[in-house]
Each structure stands twice: as structure tokens, then as C-alpha cells.
Design brief:
The complex is a heterotrimer of chains A (290), B (163) and C (798).
Chain A (H helix, E strand, L loop, with lengths): L6 E4 L3 H9 L4 E4 L5 H6 L7 E4 L9 E3 L3 E5 L4 H8 L6 H8 L4 H4 L4 H7 L5 H8 L3 E6 L2 E6 H4 E3 L2 E2 L6 E8 L5 E8 L9 E9 L5 E9 L6 E4 L11 H9 L15 H27 L1
Parallel strand pairs in A: 1-3, 2-3
Antiparallel strand pairs in A: 4-5, 5-10, 6-7, 6-10, 8-9, 11-12, 12-13, 13-14
Chain B lengths: L1 E3 L5 E7 L2 E7 L5 H8 L18 E4 L2 E4 L5 H4 L3 E3 L1 H4 L5 H10 L9 H14 L7 H5 L10 H16 L1
Chain C lengths: L12 H5 L16 E7 L5 E7 L1 H5 L3 E6 H4 L23 E2 L5 E7 L2 H10 L1 E6 L6 H5 L14 E9 L2 H6 L3 E9 L11 E7 L4 E6 L6 H10 L6 E4 L15 H14 L3 E4 L2 H7 L5 E10 L5 E13 L25 E10 L13 H19 L3 H8 L8 E2 L5 E2 L4 H11 L2 H7 L3 E2 L2 E16 L10 H5 L8 E8 L5 E5 L8 H13 L6 E4 L20 H28 L6 E4 L2 E4 L2 E6 H10 L12 E8 L15 E16 L5 E11 L6 H20 L31 E6 L16 H18 L10 H8 L7
Parallel strand pairs in C: 1-12, 10-11, 14-15, 21-22, 28-29
Antiparallel strand pairs in C: 1-5, 2-4, 2-6, 3-5, 7-15, 8-13, 9-10, 9-12, 13-14, 16-17, 18-19, 19-27, 20-21, 20-26, 23-24, 24-25, 27-28
The chains are: A alpha+beta (290), B alpha+beta (163), C alpha+beta (798).
The complex binds flavin-adenine dinucleotide and FE2/S2 (inorganic) cluster (FES) (2 copies).
One FE2/S2 (inorganic) cluster sits at the interface of chains B and C.
Chain lengths: 290, 163, 798
Amino acid sequence: MKPVPFDYVLPETLDELLEVLALGNNAKILAGGQSLVPMLNMRLARPDMLISLRRIPGLEGIEDEGQSLRVGAMVVQERFRRAVSGREGFDALSVGMEHIGHPQTRSTGTVAGSIAHADPSSELPLLLQVYRGSATIMGPSGLRNVEARDLFLFPYTTLIEPQEVVVSTSWPKPLRGTGSAFMEISRRRGDFALVAVACQIRINGERCLEDGVLGAAGVAGTPISVELPSHFKGQTLSEDVAQYWIQSLDPLLDPPNDLEASSGLRRHLVHQLGYQTVVEAERRAGGNKR
Amino acid sequence: MIRYGKDQRVAVTLTINGRPYRRWVEPRMLLSDFIRDEVGLTGTHVGCEHGVCGACTVLIDGEPARSCLRLAVDVEPQNVTTIEGLAKEPGYERVRRAFSQNHALQCGFCTAGIVASVWSRLENYEGLQVDWDELLSGHLCRCTGYVGIQNAIRDLQGEEREQ
Amino acid sequence: MSWVGQSVPRFEDGRLMSGQGQYIADLAPVPGIRQAAILRSPYAHARISGIDMSQALALPGVFGIVTGADLSTILAPFPVGVPIPMKYFPLAIDRVRYVGEPVAVIVAESRYLAEDAADLIRVNYQPLPVAMDVEASVQGGSTWIHDDVADNLANHRTFRYGDPEEALKSSDLIVEERFFYPRNTGIPIETYGVIAHYDQSLGDYTVWANFHGPFTLHSVMAHALKVTTQKLRIKTPTDIGGSFGVKSAVYPYMVLMAATSRLLGIPVKWVEDRLEHMKASSSASSRISYLTAGFSSDGRLRALKLRQYDDVGAYIRAPEPATLYRVHGNLTGAYDVANVSLENFAVLTNRVPTGLVRGYGGPQLYFPLERMMDIAARKLGLDPADIRRKNLIRPDQFPYRTASGGLYDSGNYQQVLETALNEAKYEQFRSQAAGGKGPMRYGIGMAAVVEPSGSNMGYVTVAYTPEERARQLPKSGAVSAATVAVDALGGITVQIDSAPEGQGHETVVRQIVADVLTVPPETIRVIAEMDTATTAWTISSGSYSSRFAAAGASAVHTAAVQVRDKLLALAANHLHTDVKTLRFEQGRVFHGDEASSWTVKRLAGLTHWHPAGLPTGTTPGVYETSYFSLPNMEPPTATDLVNSSATYGFLVDVAKVAVNVETGEIEILDYVTVHDAGNLLNPLLADGQIQGGLAFGIGSALYETLHYDEDGQLLTGSLMDYLVPTVSEMPHSLTIRHHHTPAPGVPLGAKGLGEGNVMSAGAAIANAVSDALGTEVLALPLSLRAVSDITGKGGGQR
Ligand SMILES: Cc1cc2nc3c(=O)[nH]c(=O)nc-3n(C[C@H](O)[C@H](O)[C@H](O)COP(=O)(O)OP(=O)(O)OC[C@H]3O[C@@H](n4cnc5c(N)ncnc54)[C@H](O)[C@@H]3O)c2cc1C
Ligand code: FES
Ligand code: FES
């Protein structure tokens, strides 16, 4: 279990990075390495060149931009988790990130790396969708912003082109009155999700629904999410409303069938967890209101 | 911009346990192999090389991390601490005692990694809430059933509270 | 105060806690060692029609490549424990039979380069049909894996004790079920490692490996290398990073690297990586058991009928098919039943060969047996505790001879059961916890297990028919050797033959010798590394079958007593008194209450510095070796009776679980385990063995399986997919209690206890889950998927 030989490049500016990426010779970006290096060690990934982001300045920040938090590409998961834990409306994010691997991998794995890797069972791609976040991507033709809901195409495949790099991700701060929740079933603590569900809900003073996003991971080739159907806006969250909303995920489901859980079981789990998550998010929204 | 060719051996200088070690290695060399085979600090163990078992865990700038999932060349200029370094710390004796008295190790193969994780929380975490089971879940121990390790941690926390 | 019986923290811990352990991967015992990697088969079954190594050999830094063709010039096939025409080499010759089977060994300057070279080797494979289903094979429906082994049947034996047919006929209740125990494995965190050096001038092999016996395998290796046994010197490192039985199967790799060193003329080192370990090291045998049991209406077990199919993988590798026979003497568990019939099949499949894994043969037996008791209880309207009470062997029946020849040496099974039930507040749980709350269902389950320790080397030959055995030399015994030496200035060194891998033998040995010679334990040095050229050992040496407490400790004890007796005799000579009036205290000879000036140091010194002054008959030096043989270890009889183990401990586990019927998640709320392993040499270490064994048992019950698809590809080949429990998967609360019924045939009265919970946990948890769900669990592990198949959530089997 040793990697194949590869060139190692350590650009010191984004321009230099784009320059080497443009060479297009089977290169891979190395961020935290927590997904890439296992694949290198197993020789499942055989790049000719690794390009490390470690020396590029400006990728380490967590910036409060008022409406949102901008997270630099090299911010590690554990640091981001600590930064958002306890912040209003970010419950789902901080709880969800506790489910990513272990403290020992989160100390090294980056937020952007997880997004770029796009494992369909990963927590952060799901969370980025549910928070209506986006990735800022730099390429030969400059910067572009891609909404999370457009970013993920297939398992391990995104809109990010080989000559491009994610420079940051943006996490909109939930408005006042928002509650969020995250639930996951995995086989062991720290394992990838068999099924994960995340939800954010905003309510008004009368506890009527104003806005919401509900999403799931582990149940399709990409994370999936649905907005709160507009005809529920202004209603309170009844069991019927919750169930209807959850069922609106059904057309997007395409769950895998494996040793640990059948497709049928995963469908069932989305419904189970979905209900609890929606109820919990609404409860937190109510709590945050007061 | 530094560019190293795949067939090239490159000079990598890592600070391990406070001492710089300069070695000529291939860019692909894993940190775990650098520590063990190049520097000869064999207290760090390798159990899976895919990040799951935790045996290779060392401290990188004080945070526990898998040395099997880092390229040595990519670690420069961070500081690495291995069990050999911890064992020389003045506060380490109480960790050794707590582990031994609670029979927190049998074969000892997982121990260096576990001790690194535990140490990171004992040292820099004053006042912060530590989810010890979560921390320990990042390590596989096949011998102890984790009971002795949990007990050792409980003793260490008790001592901290008394202080 | 005696040291034995105290919770002495380990002497091993100091070095291990400071990074000074010495494991195989850390060693470079000879200069010029080169690194090996192994090219392995991607197919479960294929013919090899050609290997092109030209590109690989041209890679700078590559020293050579060894293939099956080269190897077959110097090796003989490994001897096996059954009379079948199968040739097992450590490297495929012209056909591969499981995914991961070694095809070539590449030796290079570094492991990185060796793997690069492996990538460049082109092997021409012609895939063959695979045989994955043991029952289909036995029925003649599978391809043959070895040309001359019909229907892949490696071993088939039938046994009959008492009159099972008649007893079944007169039973009121017949329980009939099919059970499945999965393939799982030990997952030591350290993988295999071998260093081999061939001395070209003398033709001598030296092999360092994290091998821990049984050292019968030394002769198997020497045979394969076609040398007489003194030409194969095996050394073990100071520290071995766990094994749980699995590392006994490093031996084919020891032969492989030894042969490679010879063929390439350089010392080679191979450190297995985790993917190799998962695919191609070893595994527990899976078992399909058809069980039929007859009970009387009041719950007495009258007859037991078992038909067992073991999947032994692509080659039956010594000591297999011993999974089927290790528990032969305790086939009937804790119950008094005389009528038994047994039919055993060991069947070859295109999976990795099986071997020792902690519990060896135990979980495969006790999962069906202990489930059977609960199934019968439910059918008869009895409480599972009551049906066990009715059938447990009574204290007055010891020593108890089982139907199949086991001799249970001592015990009080009722007492252990009652303690377990009390600790678990069994009655209280039963009376309260009807049903559950929301999606949660609560259940309680128990398992009662007779835990064998100290295997009789003769049991393995039960695989042969009595007629076949009669044509061989008899095999029997469970022996361990130890040496206690005292040097010229009184320094005490003890050499043992157990090759431990974390059990703390160095500490227990100190406790034992400190007691006998009345010196502080820290003044004793223990050498636990094995060296077949210099250590006293026997074919049954090694760490397996929980044998140290009974066998190894006894050898140490008797060797220390020999030293003590020699020194006391010397003292008696000098003090002109009868030796019977003398004893050691604090390292000094006492005559009655009076301290003499004679110490261990001074007496031993005499034998070194002044041999001329020794009384006639006293030899110079103090170097006492004891070969200790456990009692009642006869070869199997002509009627297939065998006492397969030297001592038998007992344990009862009670598990409480919560099952979420919506998600299939199982939580172990509370776990009680009560053991009777006789006298405990070191309770701290004993509990450590129980905790570790239990973690293992929980893994096998809920998580672990080496799962193959129908083409023979391993689907759980990394630690991401093969789920070893972490701390978060352990029970919320664990209670351990002990009873102490000494082992009568063992000087210190101790029995082994490290495997019991591997045998019990699967059954106890399955019983608890069956109780919670009101169904009968018939297979392990209880994954979410398995539970949802029972509850039908998510459409069950879909
Ligand atoms: C034991 C273990 C358990 C884990 N459990 C989980 C889990 O439960 N959930 C989970 O989500 N993850 C889990 N992971 C994976 C972990 O979260 C990784 O950190 C993450 O998937 C990738 O982040 P990284 O920084 O390590 O990226 P790397 O491994 O460095 O890169 C991953 C991929 O993304 C690309 N990439 C990285 N950064 C960028 C960028 N800025 N722009 C463009 N491309 C980029 C790389 O080229 C590569 O293809 C686990 C890992 C381990 C070892
Ligand atoms: S060896 Fe690095 S985590 Fe297992
Ligand atoms: S002590 Fe052996 S693996 Fe932990």
C-alpha cells in the first residue's frame, strides 16, 4: 500500500496553481489528503502530479461577510466545526460535522476537499445544499460561483473542471427564526452515513412556516434536497405537512443496495429520520425565536 | 514554485520531537514511513495505511493526525510529535501510570496513537468540553475492549479536577 | 503475601508506553535486508498460462522476482491434517484458487519500488468457474477446486454417542433449525511480518516472524522447505501486536520468504499491508449447522444431533479442519446429555484458507447450541434461565465425562448462572420490560458456555477415522516448557515458550517466580522471545487455546520449584540440617523462625564460583528447565472419545438490548459476564482478557463479516467495510464477576479465560434480540439489514 510515483508541486500563488493545472497532465489537487491519500496508498488513484494547496496564501480564513461565512479552501473541518458550534441556526452544520470521520481526520481534512470529493454519503455536500451555500471556483477564465444544488453531478463528480480549484465555500447565515437539525445513521461512530438527513426551517412569530430546505445523503448519487413547498408557507408544521414534505424527496431517491442496508431500508430510513429531523428543526426554530 | 520530479529524491526537513531531521526521499513517501524508516522512530506504528485504525496517529502542530495520510514532503514546516517525544515530557509520567494501572494496553500496537490523541486533549484543552468517546472512536484497539483506556482517561480527568 | 493472585500492573507497559516496543517491522537483525512485496491474484479461480516479468525486472532497484515455477524446485507441498490429494504451496504454481493468493514475490530496495515492479508484471489468467457454496459442493453441484478432491470435500466424519435416534423418538419436543455463523477474523492491529535469511554455505534458514505457534507448525514448515528441523531456526520479536490466533497462519509466508531468500541469495523482509491481510491472511471458518434437539416436556435435553458444514477456503491448511474438532470434547456445552450424533463436513471454497481465530470452533458451536436452548424454552413455555437450570451439569457430577469424551475437571455451573442472573437483575427486567416504547423493543438474553483451555494435541486427529488413526503413531498431550536460571551474582532470568502478543506473560511469570524464590518481581528478567535454536520448547509450545494460565504458568512454576529445591538442598548441606526444615523468605533461607546468612544470591553463587565445593550429585550452575505436561491428555479412543482440552472453565453472559424496529439499530444497554476460570493469576489481566474477548464477541454478533460476492471477490476488504467495533459500539455498562473453582490438575489451579466471551457473546446477544423481537435469530451478524429482514421494514429482503 504505497503510492505510485508522482511529481509534487507546491505553488505559492493561485496564479501559479492555475498555471500548473492548465498543463492538464493527470494532476490532482492535494488538500488535507484524507480522501486522496487512502486512494493513493491503495493505488486506486494514480496521478502523475500532485499539486499541494499548502503554500498558497489566503486559503486559511473563515471570514464573516455579514450575510454569510466564507470558508477558505484549506480550512480544516475541525476548525470550522468549532467556529460554528453554538451559533444560531448552525446546529445542523455543527452536529453534522461531528459525524465526519474522527477528530483525528477532521484535524486535517478540509471543508472544500470534502465538497470537491463529492462522496454521495458525505455530510458536508449535503449541508452545503441545505444551507443554500455555494462554492467559489477559480479557473482559467476567472472566478465563478456555483450554487451547491447545481454542483454535484454523480458520485465523486462535480461541475469543478480539472483545471479549476475551489478557493472557498460560502455558508449563508440563517435568518432569525431559523432552526436546523441533522440526523444520521451510520454503522459505527464516525463512519460515512448510511443515511443522513438535514433540514432548516424558518418560522414567524405565530410559528407559521416561512421557509425551509430538507435534504438527504447516502440515498442517491449526489446529495438531494427540496425546498419547503410554497403552499405550506404560512401554515404550522403538522404531521401531514411534515410527511408531505418528506415524501417530496421520493422522486429524487436512488438509494444503493449493499451489505449494510438494502435500497428499501434506506428509503424507509429517509422517511424515519426525515420526520424526526423536520420536527427537531422546527422545534429549534421555535426555541431560537424566543 | 517548488516542483519535484517523480524520479527525484528531494531534501525534506521535518521537525520531529523538537529536532530537525533532513532526509532525501521521494515525494511520494508517507510521513509514517519517514518517521519510522528514515528517522528510525519506530514507536509510531502502521496498521492500515488508509486512515481507519489510528495506530499511526501523531501530533502535527499539537493536533492528532494520521501520519499514514500525509506525504512527508507536504508536512514541512509543521511540527511533528511522536510517542518518543511525549515520553520525555514532564507531564507524561501520569499518563503512563494511568494507562498501566488501568491495563489500558495489551499488545501496545495501538497505544502510541491513542496516547497522542489523549495527550492533545489533556494539554491544550483546559476548559474545553472533550467528548472522550468520540476522540477514542478514532482508534481501533483489538485487545482491550477499550474499558481500560476509558478508565485511564477517567483517572486522568479526576487528577485534573483535583489540581 | 503472594504475588500470584494480585492485580500487578504490567512490566511490559513501560517500554510500550514510551515507543520502545520491538515489533517485527521495527527489526533489522541482519545486514543487507531487502524489501518484498507480493503480487496477488485478482481472480478467485483461474489458470495461470504465463507470467511476463521482463518490464518489472528491468526496473532499477529490483533484485529479483520469484514465481511458483521457481519455488516448486525447492519446496514440497505443506503437510495437511487430512488424507486428501491436495497440494498446498505458499505461492500459486499454475492455478489460483482465491482472490489474494500469492502469485509472485518481488524483492527490491524499498517497498515502494517492489510495489511498482508488481504493477509491471503481466500475468495471463484464464478464469475458471468458482465454488462458493458449501452445500452445493457437497451435493455435487460445484466445480472442483482441486482436480482430485471430489466435490471439494476435504473432510467428512460421523460420530454417534449413546442412542440419539431412540432418545429423539421418545422426546416430547423436537427443535430443528439451520444456523449460520459467518466468516470473520481477528484483525490484529499489527499485520504479518517476516524476515528471512538463508545461509548459502550451510543451507540454514533463520526466519524472524510475528508467529506464536503452535510450534507443531515448525515441522510443517521444515517439511515444506525440505530440510531437517534444526536447519530452520525461528525467532519471534519481543513484541507482537496482537494476533487472536490469526498470526499462526503467517507460517506459509515464513516458508515463502525463506525460499525467496534462498533463491535470490539475499535476506528479505516482508511486512504485510492491511489490504493483503484482509484478503489473504486467514479467517475463521463460517459454519452452517443443522441442529436437531429432543427435549422432554419438562425441559430436559434428551438428544442432540448436529450436522456441520465448515467452509475452510481454497486449501485446507494445518491445523484445519480443527475448527470442527477443537471443541469435540465439550460438544454438549454445559448440559448433561448422553445421546449425541454429529456429522462434520469440511468443504473447500474459493475463499481464503481458514485457521485459528480467537474462540476457535467455540462461537461456531455455541451460537446454535445456546440459541437452541432459548428456542426450546419458548416452545415449552419455560423461562430461558429455568431450562438451563434443569440441564446444567451439577456440582456433584465433577469430574464429568461428556458424551464425546471430554473430562470437565471442575466447576459449579449453577452458582455462576445465579450470580449472572442476580447481577443482571434478571427477574426484575423480565417482570417490567414487556414490549417497548415507540420504535424501541427491549430484550434480555443469556448464554452459558464451557470454555476449554489447553488443547490436547491429539484432538486434531479426530479428523481421521479410528482405522486411519490406528495406522499412525498416536498423538496426545499439552506440554509447555520454561527455564529458570540464576547467574553467578544471583540474577534471575526466565525463558518461556509462549510467544505472547499482549497477554502480559512477562508480568505473570515474574509473579510466579517471585513467589517461589521469595524475591521482588522487578529483580527477575523474563525473555519471552522464542528462538527454536535456544529456547526449551515442544511441538505444543506457543500462544493459542488459552493455554498459558494452565500450561505455561505451570512450566514456569515447576522450573522455579526445581531451582528452589536445588538451592535449599545446598543450604541444607551447609547448615547440616534436613532440607524439610528450611524455606525461603525474602530471598533468604530460614531455618524455623531464624534467618540464616544464606540467600538465593549466595547459594547460586556457590554453584558458579566454587563448583569444587558442591556436594556430590549437585551439578554446577543453576539452570532448570521444566517440561510440564497437563494431565488427562490421552489420544482419541477407538470409539472417537477425546478429552480435547486440559481444563474447562465456565461462564454465563446476560445481555440486555434495545432494538429500534424502524431502523434496525441494536444497542447493548447492559452486559454481565460471570466467569469461573479457577484461580486467577492476575485479576487485572484476567479482566483485560474478558473485556477484549467481549469486544470481539460483540463485533462478531453485530458487525463483522468477510463477505464475498458470487464471483469470489471480497466485499469487505478494508477497515472501512470490515467493521471492527470502536469504543462507541461497546455496551453502556459492563459487569464482570468471578467464581474460583480451582483446576485440580494444575499446580496453580488456573484455567484459561481469554476466549469465552467470543464463544458466548454472539449467542447471548442473538438471544436478547430474539427476545426483543419475538422471533428466532438464526444467523449473524445482526446488521441493520439483517434486522430489517426480520422486521420487514423497508420491504425486507429487497
Ligand atoms: C477514517 C476516515 C473516515 C472518514 N469519514 C468520513 C465521513 O464520515 N464523512 C465524510 O464526509 N468524509 C469522511 N472522510 C473523508 C474526509 O472527510 C476528507 O477530509 C474529505 O473527504 C476530503 O477532504 P481533504 O481535505 O482531505 O481532501 P483531499 O483528500 O486532499 O482531496 C479529496 C479530493 O478533492 C480534491 N480537492 C481537494 N481540495 C480541492 C479544492 N480546493 N479544489 C478542487 N479540488 C479539490 C482532490 O483533488 C481530491 O480529488 C473520512 C476519512 C477517513 C480517513
Ligand atoms: S495506519 Fe494510519 S490510520 Fe491506520
Ligand atoms: S493494545 Fe493491542 S490493539 Fe490496542
